[in-house]
TrEMBL record:
One of its GO terms (biological process) is oligopeptide export from mitochondrion. Residues 120-404 form the ABC transmembrane type-1 domain. It comes from Raphidocelis subcapitata. It is found in: Mitochondrion inner membrane. This is ABC transporter B family protein. InterPro entries: AAA+_ATPase, ABC1_TM_dom, ABC1_TM_sf, ABC_transporter-like_ATP-bd, ABC_transporter-like_CS, P-loop_NTPase, Type_1_exporter. Residues 465-702 form the ABC transporter domain. The chain crosses the membrane at residues 247-275, 351-369.
């Protein structure tokens, strides 16, 4: 099968992103050009043809099969193609390829246009409501004029009925307008929240090292709720677009009624606008300071609540209270300054309104007395003055709300813009990516799912796991190397123990094997296949990890055990895994059994119980490779015995890496690897290493160990 070229070549099957763009060949050409260039740097047409066999990526040329094609396709080209589709979009107006961030104005407009029915209904009702409100002062003036001039009551009745109809219809139209405007805002924000969560879940692990959980939670809750509050607050009569329309409409109607009177009524607009400019200039840094203080206050509270047991054990309540109080004081100071600016602004507004009314009475009375203007226009002018007062204040408040919402949106956008998705997550991309919505493209019919190719077969059967010339330093500490030229092979079906002093790099090896990070040099292979040839899902199916402090989700025991299978397993399978992990007995004694809620991070269970739940989860996942990172170091003797029995069942017939400080637990390993200063100091069996009298013997002596226990 020919590969998708994206340029109208001889392809017989397009990749999913190209299928969505098949009606827009110009866009395909620009988007796929960089990918073709990348192919040549990766081994030319022959290598590109080999990588195209999975049907996922967009490749440029085909050639005769070579020996290299026997290897599974590397997804790097597919990753770049999909990331190009997400992050590199073409401007639909000028046809120029432009690099856009996920959260840009075009994307937001695309979200709004997805719900045109709400937008159209809300717009029509808004215009009708505005027209009704603008007509009311004019009709009121005519109504009083008929009484003052003692005109026929028929005229009075006609004007009254028209005014009555407007007063009856306006509330109904307002209801329909608000329902549709709020529905539109809720749908847009729901999509935005979901897309933001999806994007955060696709970030590299180093992204989560850099940003705290409370900060990211704040993006999804506080920041987006600020935008939600803006929608709710600005749907009323005296706020939002309605306020701007009524203010502009009132000025136009006043000039239509009397060009002599309109400038006097417009005074309130001029003064309020000047006051608003000064107000915004003064309050912008205050709002920013208050926002930072509130964010820090939330972070302090989150940290204290999350670590409450540590706080209690060290009597740290006073310290946490002081930390919180310092941030609360900063927020209070900013709030006081904001309040003073708000008070000055309101006082200026009131003075402008009163001055406008006094000038209106003086100048308008003179015009009426001289016969230059009917009294109905003066009465209408008084009504419009109050309309302008409310509309102008609403418009200013809307601008303030808009600034806060825009600030929240910018904080979200800044965080997303400064990070790139994890390339290995491309298989998790569902339809509806940023670029599709922004450009109004039809959603991709075929979801971006994991492709079952050669790598998937390898992940199912397992094989030797190898680190080949691996060097690594953590992204946040790039100047501090952690691993140096590590070469290690974990033979299939054997147990390898990784030992060494703290800081030697043992847990870093586990993190690399779990693909939390990518090595700066070297490669990681499973059964001879580079880790880059696996999607994130395929690699996750191949490797299961049980850590020293297993993390449980705040759901039920059954939910936690079945997490590795994403709920696609029977109750009998869950029970079998629990029995194999020595967990069924204590679960059965719980009032709700497998439906018992474990609490946040599993705090309602003991350490040994949490560890056995984690082992049951790994058993049910049934991965061919198991990593045990200090899995029993924090347990008492009884719990350790139960966990060790469960581990024996877990590792049977699998490739196992055991990371341990206590050497008594690893003496029966097929291979013991001693690490020191980020390098492998020596390797061999327990007896071989003891005979050498090297670092392993020193570790044994430091722990006072003798031959004995085994895994």
């Amino acid at each position: 099968m020919s590969a998708c070229r994206g340029l109208g070549g001889l392809a017989t099957r397009a990749c999913p992103p190209c299928a969505a763009l098949k009606q827009q060949p110009g866009r395909l050409k620009a988007i796929h050009r960089p990918i073709g260039n990348q192919q040549q740097r990766r081994g030319g047409p022959a290598a590109a043809a080999g990588r195209a066999r999975s049907g996922v990526s967009c490749r440029a040329a085909a050639a005769a099969p070579t020996a290299a094609e026997a290897l599974p396709p590397r997804p790097s080209g597919a990753v770049e193609a999909l990331l190009q589709h997400i992050l590199v979009r073409r401007d639909t107006l000028d046809g120029t390829p432009t690099r856009r961030a996920p959260l840009d104005n075009q994307y937001l407009i695309g979200l709004v246009l997805q719900h045109r029915e709400h937008l159209i209904i809300a717009t029509v009702c808004l215009l009708l409501c505005t027209a009704s409100n603008l007509a009311a002062p004019v009709l009121s003036g005519l109504l009083f004029e008929t009484l003052v001039q003692q005109q026929p009551m028929e005229r009075y009745a006609k004007v009254f009925m028209v005014l009555l109809a407007g007063y009856v219809l306006e509330p109904l139209l307002t209801k329909v307008y608000m329902q549709n405007a709020i529905a539109l805002g809720e749908k847009v924000l729901a999509t935005l929240r979901l897309e933001l969560f999806r994007t955060l879940m696709m970030q590299k692990i180093e992204f989560f090292d850099r940003h705290s959980a409370s900060e990211l939670q704040g993006l999804l809750s506080v920041e987006l709720d600020t935008m939600r509050s803006f929608v709710f607050s600005n749907c009323s009569r005296d706020r939002g677009l309605r306020a701007f329309l009524e203010a502009a409409g009132a000025i136009l109607v006043l000039f239509w009624l009397s060009w002599r009177l309109a400038p006097v009524c417009s005074l309130v607009i001029v003064v309020t606008a000047l006051a608003a400019g000064h107000y915004r200039k003064r309050t912008r840094p205050v709002e920013q300071a208050q926002g930072r203080a509130l964010q820090q206050m939330g972070a302090v509270a989150h940290q204290a609540f999350e670590n409450m047991r540590t706080v209690r054990s060290f009597a740290g309540e006073a310290l946490e209270r002081e930390r919180f109080q310092s941030q609360a004081a900063a927020s209070y100071a900013a709030g006081r300054e904001f309040g003073r600016a708000k008070a000055n602004f309101e006082a200026t507004n009131r003075a402008a309104i009163h001055a406008s009314l006094l000038m209106l009475y003086s100048w308008g009375g003179y015009l009426v007395s001289q016969g230059l203007m009917p009294i109905s226009v003066l009465i209408s002018g008084i009504g419009f003055t109050f309309s302008l007062m409310y509309a102008t204040q609403g418009a200013v408040n809307t601008l303030s709300d808009l600034r806060r919402a825009a600030g929240a949106f910018e904080r979200v956008r800044a965080l997303i813009q400064t990070s790139d998705p994890d390339p290995s997550m491309y298989g998790a991309l569902p339809p509806g990516a940023w670029w599709e919505v922004a450009n109004g493209a039809e959603p991709v019919v075929e979801p971006y799912a994991d492709k079952a190719g050669d790598a998937a077969v390898v992940s199912a059967k397992g094989g030797d796991l190898e680190l080949r010339g691996v060097s690594f330093s953590y992204p946040l500490r790039a100047d501090l190397p952690v691993l140096h030229d590590v070469n290690l092979i974990l033979k299939r079906g054997t147990v390898t123990a990784l030992v060494g002093r703290s800081g030697a790099g043992k847990s870093t090896v586990a993190a690399l094997l779990s693909r939390f990070y990518l090595p700066q040099q070297g490669s990681i292979l499973l059964d001879g296949v580079d880790a880059g040839s696996f999607t994130r899902g395929e690699w996750a199916r191949a490797i299961a990890m049980v850590s020293q402090e297993p993390v449980l989700f705040s759901g039920t025991i059954a939910d936690n055990i079945s997490y590795g299978r994403f709920g696609k397993c029977s109750a009998a399978e869950i029970r079998a895994a629990a029995e194999a992990a020595n967990a069924h007995e204590f679960i059965s004694r719980l009032p709700d059994g497998y439906q018992t809620v474990v609490g946040e991070r599993g705090t309602l269970l003991s350490g040994g119980q949490r560890q056995r739940i984690a082992i049951a989860r790994a058993l049910l996942k049934d991965s061919p490779v198991i990593i045990l990172d200090e899995a029993t170091s924090a347990l008492d003797a009884v719990s350790e015995k139960l966990v060790q029995e469960a581990i024996q069942r877990l590792v049977s017939g699998r490739t196992v890496l055991v990371i341990a400080h206590r050497l008594s637990t690893v003496q029966a390993a097929d291979q013991i690897v001693v690490m020191a200063n980020g390098q492998i100091a020596e390797r061999g069996t327990h007896e071989q290493l003891l005979a050498k009298g090297g670092p392993y013997s020193e570790l044994m002596s430091s722990q006072g160990m003798i031959l004995g226990s085994s895994i």
